[in-house]
Amino acid sequence: MTRCDHCGNETTLPFTCQHCGGKFCSECRLPPNHNCTGIGSWNRKPRPAVGMSYSRGGGVSATGGIAADTRRGAAKKTGGGVPYLKIMIAIIILIILGFLGLLLAGFRF
Ligand SMILES: [Zn+2]
Ligand SMILES: [Zn+2]
């Protein structure tokens, strides 16, 4: 169990603030909610980046939906690029099977 640096509540999943380095409960994790010493850098950052950095810690925030959407889009992109790997594996398996066939044929004769 970890205690929230701001309100002192025990929390099983503490959120680490990227701006002041403190550990906070889900209610105090946002900089405005714990009188963050690094709130200046938080205000300067664009919202989507903040949402992504907080969702990485398992938190669900208002911008979490956007972060999840971009992650799904990235997964789709990488999924479309994978067939090269599958083709390579298929070719390697075919070559191995071919060698095994040749070896078995060699043993039989
Ligand atoms: Zn708290
Ligand atoms: Zn902070």
Fraction of helical residues: 40-55%
Number of helices: 4
The count of β-strands is 4
Assembly level: single chain
Low-confidence stretches: 49-57
Q: Describe the biggest sheet? A: 2 strands, antiparallel
Q: What structural class results from the helix and strand content?
A: mainly alpha
Cα-to-Cα separation, first versus last residue: 70 Å
The outline comes out as elongated
- Strand/helix succession: EEEEHHHH
Strand order, biggest sheet? 1-2
Radius of gyration: 25 Å
Bound molecules: zinc ion
Mean pLDDT: 76
Which descriptors would you attach to this protein?
mainly alpha, 4 helices, 4 strands, binds zinc ion, two-stranded antiparallel ribbon, 7% strand, two-stranded antiparallel sheet
Q: How does this structure look, described?
A:
With 109 residues, the chain is mostly helical. The chain has a domain at 1-45. The protein is built from 4 helices and 4 strands; from the N terminus they run E-E-E-E-H-H-H-H. The strands form 2 sheets. It has a two-stranded antiparallel sheet. Strands 3-4 form a two-stranded antiparallel sheet. Strand 1 and strand 2 (10-11) form a beta hairpin. The N and C termini lie far apart (70 Å). The relative contact order is 0.09. The chain binds zinc ion (2 copies).
Topology:
Elements: E1 2-3, E2 10-11, E3 15-16, E4 23-24, H1 39-44, H2 47-55, H3 64-81, H4 83-108
Antiparallel strand pairs: 1-2, 3-4
Helix pairs in contact: 2-3
The structure holds zinc ion (2 copies).
Short description:
The chain is mainly α and 109 residues long.
